[in-house]
Structure formats: structure tokens, C-alpha cells
Amino acid sequence: MTSVETKSRVAGKPETGQPVLIIDDVVKTFGDAEEAVTAVDHVSFNVKQGEFVAVIGPSGCGKSTLFNIIGGLLGEYDGNVLIDDERISGPHPSVGMVFQEESTFPWRSVIDNVAFPLELRGVAKSERYDRARHFIGLVGLDGFEKRFPSQLSGGMKQRVSIARTLVSNPRILLMDEPFAALDEQTRLLLGDKITQIQQELKQTTLLITHNLTEAVQLSDRIVVMTYRPGKVKRIADINLPRPRTSDVVGSDAFGHYVAEIWNDLREEASRGMQESEQVARADRRHG
Ligand SMILES: Nc1ncnc2c1ncn2[C@@H]1O[C@H](COP(=O)(O)OP(=O)(O)OP(=O)(O)O)[C@@H](O)[C@H]1O
Ligand SMILES: [Mg+2]
Description:
By secondary structure, this protein is of the alpha/beta class. The protein folds into 2 domains: 14-94 and 171-286, P-loop containing nucleotide triphosphate hydrolases (Rossmann fold, 3-Layer(aba) Sandwich); 104-169, no CATH class. It has helices spanning 3-11, 63-70, 110-114, 116-120, 125-138, 154-166, 184-201, 212-218, 252-286; strands at 19-30, 37-48, 52-56, 78-83, 86-87, 95-98, 172-176, 204-209, 221-225, 232-237. A 6-stranded mixed β-sheet has the order 6-7-8-3-9-10, with helices on both faces. The radius of gyration is 20 Å and the shape is globular. The chain starts with a helix and ends with a helix. Mean pLDDT is 89; it is low at 1-14. The protein binds adenosine-5'-triphosphate and magnesium ion (MG).
């Protein structure tokens, strides 16, 4: 058992409402001197036990950089990302990650994809299949256990990735644009699945997205980021009732939240667009 495991067992599960993930004054700069790009600029917020928080911002504002720091994939940064008072500088056993890119193993069936993390830990076949079946059911893929990824749609493959992450029972679920490649209808329906899973597991979740509807549909709070350098512009509370379904998308309150956050985002997105147009013009002049 690692010291981290010992610590979390002794400490037990924090109460609902306690911060489990603390992002404190995080700064990340790439490159040196004149070439330096500050991707994340003094970002602070926290995620409480059982809470669903989305980070939204225009392309290039540092969302994936933040995701990689929290997931321990980018060890060098300033400030602190803390889980159980421990500063993150590498992958943490409490964190499960779901990536934007397709990440299923094409040579493994659905059940062997989902059971993979348990196989790595040496869990016996019957037990790992039992647990994998539970999570396959939770993401709505009952009956697809023996299929291979090439026989599934994009949305189904993303559900396999989510089940494979959940099977390890991570305390904190981190997702970076998991539905970005999907069409709007599939997104909304998958959003329903995510909400159901959240209700059942009370999973603490941080979702990175640039999709406004998705952020409002799923979240308790939304962290709105500025265009480069990525700072926190505002943290919005989403007081929509739970349990939620995608029906909420038609409500007045939903429209109100979307409009409010779009106001913040529009400024940032247009700043990003102007900047890329300037770069393109400068490139044409010099090219
Ligand atoms: N490894 C790296 N080396 C140098 N610069 C990087 C690196 N990773 C990211 N950047 C820069 O940091 C900034 C933020 O990038 P990041 O990928 O975090 O943005 P993002 O918000 O996830 O964008 P998108 O919505 O397009 O995924 C960008 O200017 C990017 O060019
Ligand atoms: Mg990104």
C-alpha cells in the first residue's frame, strides 16, 4: 500500500461540501524569454466533495494545460494543486482521467477494455468482469460487452472510455472535452447519462469544455476562463434543480444561465479571434 492510500483510508472520505481538489494560484509558462507563453495565469478555485464543476473558455486559454497539471502529467508548475493536502506533481491514485481523443484499445472487446485497469491490478477474471459489467450497464452499454470498438459509434466508444475510468473508482473524475467530437444530439443524451452516473456515484467531477450548453446542463458551478493568458474571469453558480435531465435545456432558467455566461465568453472568444487574425496577417506580410 502506498503512503497516499494509507493516508486516504485513515482520513476517510471527506464530507459533502468539503474541498477535495484545491487549485491555488497556479501558473504555467511554456518556453523561455521572448518566446514564453503563459498558458495558465494565477488560477485558483476548488472542487468540493460530490460537486460537478466545469471549466469553460475559448480555444487556447489553457484548459488542457490545467487538466494535465491536475492529472499529474505536467509536473512543473508554480502554485499548488492539492488533493488531501498533498501537492500534485505526478499521477495521483485518486484521479481518473477521460481524454478528448479516442482512447479505447481496438484489439480488446468492450468488457476487456473496461476491465483493463483491474487486470493491471491483478484482480481475478470473474471479479473484474463482474465489476466491468456494472459500469458497462451504468453507461448504458448492456449487451455490447463482446463488441469491439470498431463496431461502435463515437459516442459509444467515449462511454467505454468513461466506464474504464470509473471502474477504478476514482475519487475525482477529470474529463477534457470528452464529447467534443460528437454531434449535438448525442452530446445532450450522453449528458443525461453523465448526470445519472453523477447522481448514483456522487462522483467529484471536473469537466473541461468549450461547450456552453454542456457546461450549464451538467454543472453545479462553472469556472469561466479568459483568453490567453488563461485567468479565472468568473465562477458562476448553476442553481438548476437536481435530479436533472436534458429537458432542463428548454427551461427559462437554463436560457438565462447560457446568456449570462455567453456574455462573459463572447468578449474572450472575440479577443482570441482578433489575435489569431493579427497573427495570420503578420505571417502573410513576412511570408
Ligand atoms: N507543450 C507545450 N509547449 C508550448 N506551448 C504549449 C504547450 N501546451 C500548450 N501550449 C500553449 O499554451 C496555450 C494553452 O494551450 P491549451 O492546450 O492548454 O489550450 P486549451 O484551452 O486546451 O485549447 P483548446 O480549447 O483548443 O483545446 C496555447 O497557447 C498553447 O499553444
Ligand atoms: Mg484543450
